[in-house]
Specification:
This protein has 21 helices and 20 strands. By secondary structure, the protein is of the alpha+beta class. The protein has four domains: about 70 residues, no CATH class; about 90 residues, no CATH class; about 180 residues, Nucleotidyltransferase, domain 5 (2-Layer Sandwich); about 170 residues, no CATH class. Strand 7 and strand 8 form a beta hairpin. Helix 4 packs across helix 7, helix 9 runs parallel beside helix 10 and helix 13 packs antiparallel against helix 14. The longest helix is centred in the middle third of the chain and has 30 residues. The protein is globular and about 100 Å long. The two termini are about 20 Å apart.
């Protein structure tokens, strides 16, 4: 006897209501279809309708007696697919083996804690404390064949130090694995970012400015090296009063001594560039570098005045013409005063080598226009705010302090990057308000046209410095200027890595305070990011983003345990076509195969 959910609509006062019942379909002695109503359920919400369909999917086919709704109840609900899939992928890429301890006889040791923390960081980022509840409420204890109660707060903090002790092996594993995954195994990107703490007890942290949230009482610096695909290769944690330009040498020592990396190209922004870092790269790593010059370093190697007068107008004219031409025309090679065209809006010129250093200049016409427009808006906003401050001073009803006025103006100019471009004078004067004499001030300001011109000369300009000076065929450089510009442009992958760590994986704030625990937390975040990036790379050709991936996991992971007088069954909802596609791309269909689900006593809904 098959039982189904029957719906009968009823209309009352132009409004339609849906009433549900359990029904049995059959044919009478003449073969005509008939329906018996076994039990009325009344109005049901969408979730209740879905729940009844799940119940009936189990009981159909082997139910021989009338089923009473009161005999069936939801007992609990746990997620299966998300932890099963990430656990499978974690093992597949070899992360579980990295944390294996040679003589560990514990039910849960560093290997298991690292896995739980990594999967939790991917699926439900939270403090280490909260992973205890998350672990217990997931299918992970059954998948890992451990008791949920054996994972607790004491166990987490006891094993964090052991996890950090494996950092050298984690980095070696990442480096080896990335060489197999990445299309370009000789180019790496370096950068630093800041993070902060929830609390003020960590000795590692120092007061400093977080790059996103502003000043924090306790901050740290995280330096990171990635490959061209964004996979983390090496990293370290420093106190918040350090800078990546000075701490780069420690990452370089890790690369040379712990990982045996040499004969590569390191690419980093101009904030890391220094003669000492260049020497470390050349002497200790026997490698190459690509970086940028700070604005005050450009004049000795490139004549900005001549460029702005003679070449920039021609490049902007060419850019305007190219925008209106066909895509074929956009790709043509353009030479204007030794500048070549790259892409739709970028021009570059090789300035050649001076000793063992070589410079390449790039001009981006689109960025030039954006920076010009932004500066014009900033000037307008700054003038407006200074005028408002002036009006406030004119209408002052009490004495004003000169240093306060000066501080406010300086804050306005700093906010809009106009220091040195707008000059001002503050003139005191007294006014009478009723019977009181008030000391106030007036502000006069002007735009310094020469300073404005000097600032605009560098709009859209970037000068690269490199030690790629080897000659190739026909007397040209072995690494052309276009590659120098292109490699630096690809530096966005490490910026995306930090963005992923801080947003998706919720790196900050930190809830641990001991040095080794802080470092272990960063190690775990790197493992979670590595796993996410591996998934992203696998799904990239299908145009499924990492956000889409987790959204689908969330929609498809739900299980429901039903209890009746005769049965105790866990149901896994029907997977969406997109989820099935994801499992196919990741070669992970084994986690929904009949044998695997039976092993964990899960019944799929067909």
């Amino acid at each position: 006897m098959r039982i189904h959910l029957n719906m009968r609509p009823r209309t009352k006062k132009d409004k339609t209501y849906r009433y549900y019942s359990l029904a049995r379909s059959y044919r009478d002695e003449n073969g005509d279809p008939k329906k018996d109503i076994l039990q009325n359920l009344g109005q049901l919400g969408d979730l209740e309708v879905a729940a009844w369909k799940m119940r009936l999917a189990v009981f159909n086919g082997d139910v021989t007696e009338m089923m009473n709704a009161n005999d069936i109840e939801f007992v609990d609900s746990k997620n299966y697919l998300d932890v099963a899939l990430l656990s499978f992928l974690y093992d597949k890429i070899g992360l579980n083996d990295v944390f294996k301890m040679a003589s560990s006889q514990k039910e849960i040791g560093a290997q298991e804690v690292a896995k739980i923390l990594t999967l939790s960081r991917c699926l439900d980022p939270s403090s280490n404390y909260k992973t205890v509840d998350w672990f217990e409420q997931s299918y992970l204890p059954r998948l890992m064949d451990v008791r949920a109660e054996s994972y607790n707060k004491d166990k987490i903090f006891h094993e964090l130090q052991n996890i950090h002790q494996k950092k050298k092996w984690i980095q070696k594993f990442f480096y080896s694995f990335s060489k197999k995954m990445s299309k370009e195994s000789s180019l790496y990107f370096f950068d630093g970012t800041t993070s902060f703490f929830e609390g003020t007890e960590c000795e590692l942290a120092e007061p400093g400015k977080d790059k996103t949230t502003g000043f924090q009482s306790k901050t740290i610096l995280i330096c990171l090296l990635t490959d061209v695909s964004g996979f983390p290769i090496a990293w370290d944690v420093f106190s918040g009063d350090k800078r990546d330009v000075t701490e780069f040498k420690k990452i370089a020592h890790q690369m040379a001594n712990d990982m045996d990396i040499s004969n590569v190209t390191l690419c980093f922004d101009r904030g890391v560039a220094s003669s000492s870092n260049f020497d470390i790269i050349e002497k200790e790593l026997k490698s190459k570098f690509i970086s940028g010059l700070c604005r005050n370093q450009i004049d000795p190697v490139f004549d900005l005045e001549k460029f702005c007068n003679n070449t920039r107008p021609l490049l902007l004219e060419d850019y305007s013409e190219i925008k209106e031409k066909s895509s074929i025309d956009k790709k043509r090679i353009v030479t204007i005063n030794k500048f070549y065209k790259m892409g739709n809006d970028r021009y570059f010129r090789d300035l050649g080598a001076n000793g063992k250093r070589r410079h390449v200049v790039s001009f981006n016409a689109n960025i030039f226009m954006q920076e010009q427009e932004t500066r014009e808006k900033n000037i307008a906003w700054a003038k407006q705010q200074i005028d408002l401050l002036n009006d406030e001073l004119q209408n002052a009803g009490r004495d004003r302090e000169c240093f306060v006025v000066e501080k406010k103006i300086d804050e306005i100019l700093a906010r809009y990057s106009l220091k040195g471009i707008i000059s001002y004078t503050i003139t005191p004067h007294a006014k009478t308000t009723g019977t009181n004499a008030v000391q106030t001030y007036s502000i006069a300001y002007e735009i310094l046209q020469d300073a404005l011109r000097q600032a605009s000369m560098q709009d859209g300009i970037f000068v690269f410095i490199t030690n790629h000076i080897e000659a190739g065929e026909s007397g040209h450089y072995a690494v052309p200027a276009s590659a120098i510009v292109g490699h630096y442009k690809d530096k966005f992958v490490i910026e995306n890595a930090f963005r992923h760590l801080k947003s998706i994986l919720d790196l900050r704030p930190f809830y641990v305070r001991l040095d080794d625990h802080v470092r272990a937390h960063v190690d775990i975040c790197m493992c979670a990011y590595y796993l996410n990036n591996w998934i992203y790379q696998k799904l990239s050709e299908s145009e499924i983003s990492i956000d889409d991936f987790y959204s689908e996991l969330k929609k498809n992971s739900h299980t429901c345990r039903l209890k009746s007088a005769e049965k105790n069954i866990v149901l896994l909802k029907t997977l969406t076509p997109k989820m099935k596609k994801i499992l196919g791309i990741l070669d992970a269909n084994c986690i929904i195969e009949k044998e695997m689900l039976q092993k964990h006593q899960i019944t799929p809904i067909k």
